[in-house]
Amino acid sequence: MEYLKQAKALEEASAIDVEDKVKNIISDIKKEGDAGVKKYEKMFGDSVREVRVSEEEIAKSNETLSEEVKELIERIVDRVSKFAEAQLKCLTPMEEEFGEGIVMGHRILPIEKVGAYVPGGRFPLLSSGPMVVAPAKVAGAKQIVACSPANYHGGIHPAVLYGLQYSGATDIFAIGGAQAIGAMALGTESIPAVDIISGPGNRFVAEAKRQVFGKVGIDLIAGPSEVLLLIDETADAFVCAADLLAQAEHDPYARAILVSTSKQKAEETLQEVESYLKDFSETSPAHDSWENMGEVIIAESLEEGIKICNDLAIEHLHLHLKDSRGAMPQLHHYGSLFINEDSSVVFSDKVSGTNHTLPTQRGARYTGGLWVGSYVRVATHQEIKGKGVAYLADHAVQQSSIEGLEGHQLSAELRLKNKG
């Protein structure tokens, strides 16, 4: 393995500093409720508005959107919802007999109250709301509380707001950051407490989700965007360079990585990245992202390239190979896989239907991304009768005696006596 370009070590705000700030925010919201939320909205976003987005505000906001934009958002919701519906069909209830008189099974139950966080970010991302909200709607959530920063003329960007509404959000609040996460986890006078919080965000949002986990569920903790292109000598350097920059422009800390079995193709791609960047706006995060976080790695073989991919467990893994489908069975750790040159990550970012809320920072080693299954519970049940009672009770009595658990033994013995 050889590096043509390696990421730089950058200093960020210390984890302890972020942890302490978030802890204070959550503590204040617990004590002060709405007043605490508004204090931090003023402090971090200079927002003094009412936190709830009213039906009147939504209606006026919708009027500012063209029909073309609305149709784009509706198409996103439709495709994300259809994919979620197909996934939900794979999650089926079950009930079987496991020995005479022993019936066990499970039900698929929706999480009733969902908190959806949609970051404001540098750009109004039309897909962000539908990606988080639509699967919850498909899963059967009764209440979907959505929060997004009031960083567009004192409110939520109209396209983001329309996406939240059309996807099925029942309550929408113009608040962001750790204060939004704390409010949804704890509940305030205005903001309902939820059962699970999902959606991406900056390091303060991620830390807030970590701190409230246990009080509520969370989907996953995701950082800045990541992409890894695994390529060979058949790849198109122009396309590869564009695919790297498409993710690099998300955030200055986004990671765009090229792993190539061809040194010549890697060098060509590196040149094309630099060429493309000359035409990017000076304010694009892609400049800092590529300069500081971008990497180009030469693998001695496809096998080594695959090993690098599995070790990095990247968020988006895109295969530009002569036989991309053939490499798939050997790849095990990724947030989402993109097979062949034309399967652009951008399609998933925007509208294909798979979810773009995915694990980063090697989280793909132990979890997948946000999906309809994130919003349901698999709850088991059992019914024991007849010969099943005698069989299980006899075992339970013996085991409880060995373990010294008198109450367990008593409960099992009563069933034996009742069947005697």
Q: Any idea what the CATH superfamily of the largest domain is called?
A: Nitrogenase molybdenum iron protein domain
Give the structural class: alpha/beta
Question: How do the SSEs run, as a string of H and E?
Answer: EHHHHEEEHEHEHEHEEHEHHEHEHEHEHH
Tell me, what is the CATH class of the largest domain? Alpha Beta
Largest sheet: 6 strands, mixed
Detailed description of the structure:
With 420 residues, the chain is an alpha/beta fold. The chain has 3 domains: 15-92 and 109-218, Rossmann fold (3-Layer(aba) Sandwich); 224-368, Rossmann fold (3-Layer(aba) Sandwich); 385-419, no CATH class. The chain is built from 16 helices and 14 strands. It has helices at 15-32, 34-45, 55-63, 67-89, 128-139, 158-167, 177-186, 203-212, 237-248, 263-277, 285-293, 302-312, 324-327, 345-350, 387-403, 406-419; strands at residues 2-5, 94-97, 102-110, 113-117, 143-147, 171-173, 196-198, 217-218, 226-231, 255-260, 295-298, 316-320, 336-339, 376-384. It has a 6-stranded mixed sheet, sandwiched between helices. A 5-stranded parallel sheet has the order 6-5-4-7-8, with helices on both faces. The chain has a 3-stranded antiparallel sheet with strand order 2-3-14. Strand 2 and strand 3 form a beta hairpin. Helix 7 (177-186) runs parallel beside helix 8. The longest helix is centred in the first third of the chain and has 23 residues, at 67-89. The protein is globular, with a radius of gyration of 25 Å. The relative contact order is 0.14. The mean pLDDT is 95. One of its GO terms (biological process) is L-histidine biosynthetic process. Belongs to the histidinol dehydrogenase family. NAD(+) binds at residues 117, 179, 202. Zn(2+) binds at residues 247, 250, 349, 408.
